[in-house]
Every structure is written in structure tokens, then in C-alpha cells.
Amino acid sequence: MHIIIAVVAGLVSLIMGFLLGITIHRNRLKTTFNNAQQESEQILEEAEKERQKIINDAHREAKQEAKLRRQNAEKDYKQKRSEISKIE
Fold first, then answer.
1. What value does the mean pLDDT take over residues 66-71?
2. Cα gap 88→69, rounded to integer Å
3. How many helices (H) and strands (E) does the chain have?
4. What is the Cα Rg of the chain in Å?
């Protein structure tokens, strides 16, 4: 009779240990998944900030280039007008 109780107690302990192990493993997986998700969200936020910075820099450079070209065009225009005035 004692052997049967010992075997049943062993099986119950084994089953409880198995279920506890599954629960612990599941919690670790959830934690790992949540950490990975937070990290990916952070990476996406940083990428968005970098994308916006690149766009702003390109826009600023384009404005500067346009201003420089306009100034050069005005300078060339004035120079040619001066040459034409001298000819007349």
C-alpha cells in the first residue's frame, strides 16, 4: 500500500513539476517577446527620427543650392546687362 501511495505521490509531483516548468517557460517567452517588441518599436522610432533629419537636411541643402544658383544667375544677368549697356 505504501508503494502505491509513493508512486501516486511521485506521479503527482512529476506532473506538477512539468506544469510548473511549462508555466515558467511560458512567462520567460512572454518577457522575451515583450522586450523584443519594445526594442523593435524603439528602433523604428529612431529610424523615423533619422529619416526626418535626412529629409530636413536635404530640404535645407536644396534651398541653399537654389539661393546660390539664383544669386549666380542675377550676377550673370547684371554683368550681361552692363556689357550690353556699354555696347549701346
1. 96
2. 28
3. 1, 0
4. 38
